[in-house]
Design goal:
By secondary structure, the chain is an alpha/beta fold. The chain is built from 15 helices and 15 strands. The longest helix has 23 residues, at 381-403. It is elongated and about 100 Å long.
């Protein structure tokens, strides 16, 4: 349009002015003008050498292309002079991949070919243009294309966080636990003619010793979870911390416990009872929604349980008593897994397992003094038991904790997300093109300064998600969606 305006402005005769739709020769002339301007900015020395000596310098990066000037435009000389192809294919225009015109050309062909891949894109561009370092430019163009990114989004990653104090501080087994559900499974009741019913398994895992406790749960209601929690507390002792995901039954359980606590606190005449209950409060701590990597400890326990159960039972339907028996046996197997590699010492016959921390300890055990400095022959029978337990914790501290040092995944530090960034929220049950667009409105910084949880505002509302469920759109300005 600028060339048309210039032509009409310079025309002395109004009858020569062009007012019709842009013609092919005008478009081609405009393109050639843009190419000349681009080459003057990118290859001034090569153009000067060809104009004076008809040969570029040996140190030029275009030397292998045998460039030549055709109508003032730098073109590829090449070796296809006698090929039965068009002149544009024989002598394509040379463009520097760092110049904006080259980037616009690559984007144009990428969209023209319906977001073609790297090989097809380069082949189509070379029909008329020869871009230096074309492969990297094609790769960058595809990477920064929003429609292509939405078809195959890239999940955000962050350096693996340090282990929380709840996992590296010695404490009584099952004092701090994580819980998760798995299932459904089919069970039948004896002396009934009804069809098999669904059931679930609640897996409680100690955050410190990895000891596992399995409970059969009838359904996914809050009352069923509270009942399993009561059975767990009666057999293993009341925990002080329960970590779980944001499932509705777990959230409901926390609400129920808070309601009971508020009810008890309102009964002022039962001060003695309240004083005793205050020390037994259970803290519920929830990981971000749809973020299983925050609960890898109990997720791995679920996987181990499913592996043993499916390989043994398969698709058979068990009676209630049989199901309970299988669960207890699997629990014993899981609690016999080594926490540390088996030693090469021939006098060491066993490895440290979660089962070592579950024996010789009553549920109401009180802290005992450190007996490691006393010789074993001076200890009483009860002190020898406590000495054995303390030796287990010493082995746990020296061997098991050392194995937790390595970061098996997410080993590199990456740039933190910022407020206002446009993202796509990953949905497990939807194709990528139907994932919701949103903007980060709040960031939640961890103790190490890394941001692993963000709040995203979408047309449907605001959601708190881990960065493992967030895909940052490849746009230069996050305030506008290209």
């Amino acid at each position: 349009m600028i060339c048309r305006f210039r032509f009409n402005a310079q025309s002395s005769n109004r009858t020569c002015r062009r007012i019709e739709v842009l013609q092919l020769d005008e478009l081609d002339a405009a393109l050639r003008l843009l190419v000349r301007l681009s080459q003057k900015e990118s290859f001034p020395q090569e153009i000067a050498d060809l104009s004076n000596h008809n040969l570029v310098n040996k140190s030029s990066r275009l030397m292998s292309l045998n460039p030549r000037l055709i109508d003032g435009i730098l073109c590829v000389g090449g070796r296809l002079e006698h090929a039965a192809v068009s002149n544009n294919r024989k002598h394509p225009y040379i463009l520097d991949h760092r110049h904006p015109l080259a980037q616009l050309v690559m984007v144009h062909y990428h969209r023209k070919l319906f977001h073609a891949g790297q090989q097809l894109l380069i082949s189509a561009v070379r029909e008329r243009f020869w871009l230096t370092n074309a492969r990297n430019l094609a790769r960058k163009t595809i990477h920064e294309c929003v429609p292509c990114f939405r078809v195959k989004p890239k999940i955000q990653e962050k350096l693996m966080a340090d282990l929380p104090p709840d996992r590296v501080t010695p404490c009584v087994s099952f004092q701090k636990v994580g819980v998760d559900y798995c299932g459904p499974f089919q069970i039948a009741y004896p002396q009934r003619r009804s069809r098999p019913v669904k059931c679930f398994v609640a897996i409680y895992i100690c955050l410190v010793t990895k000891a596992v406790h399995l409970e059969l749960v009838a359904d996914l209601t809050t009352q069923a979870f509270l009942a399993s929690l009561k059975r767990f507390s009666a057999r293993r002792g009341k925990p002080t911390l329960i970590m779980c995901d944001n499932a509705k039954n777990f959230v409901g359980a926390r609400r129920e416990v808070h309601e009971l606590q508020r009810l008890f606190n309102s009964q002022q005449f039962q001060e003695a009872v309240i004083h005793g209950v205050e020390n037994d409060n259970i803290e519920f701590r929830f990981i971000p929604a749809r973020s299983p990597n925050f609960g890898g400890l109990w997720e791995s326990a679920v996987k181990a349980f499913k592996t043993l159960f499916k390989r043994t039972i398969g698709t058979r339907t068990l009676i209630y008593d049989e199901m309970q028996t299988v669960l207890v046996q699997i629990e014993a197997i899981l609690n016999s897994r080594p926490l540390t590699p088996i030693s090469n010492d021939p006098t060491d016959y066993e490895a440290l397992t979660p089962g070592h921390f579950l024996i010789q300890r009553p549920l109401t055990a009180i802290p005992e003094p450190n007996l490691e400095h006393l010789p074993e022959n001076r200890l009483s029978a009860w002190q020898r038991i406590q000495h054995y337990t303390q030796q287990l914790w010493k082995k746990w501290s020296h061997m098991y904790l050392s194995n937790l040092q390595n970061r098996t995944r997410w080993t590199r530090r990456r740039e933190n997300l910022s407020v206002g960034t446009m993202v796509v929220l990953k949905e497990d049950n939807l194709p990528p093109l139907r994932w919701r667009l949103g903007r980060i409105t709040e960031i939640h910084q961890g103790s190490d300064g890394n941001i692993r949880v963000v709040t995203v505002r979408t047309p449907d509302g605001s959601y708190q998600r881990a960065i493992s469920k967030v895909c940052v759109l490849p746009i230069r300005d996050n305030n506008t969606l290209l």
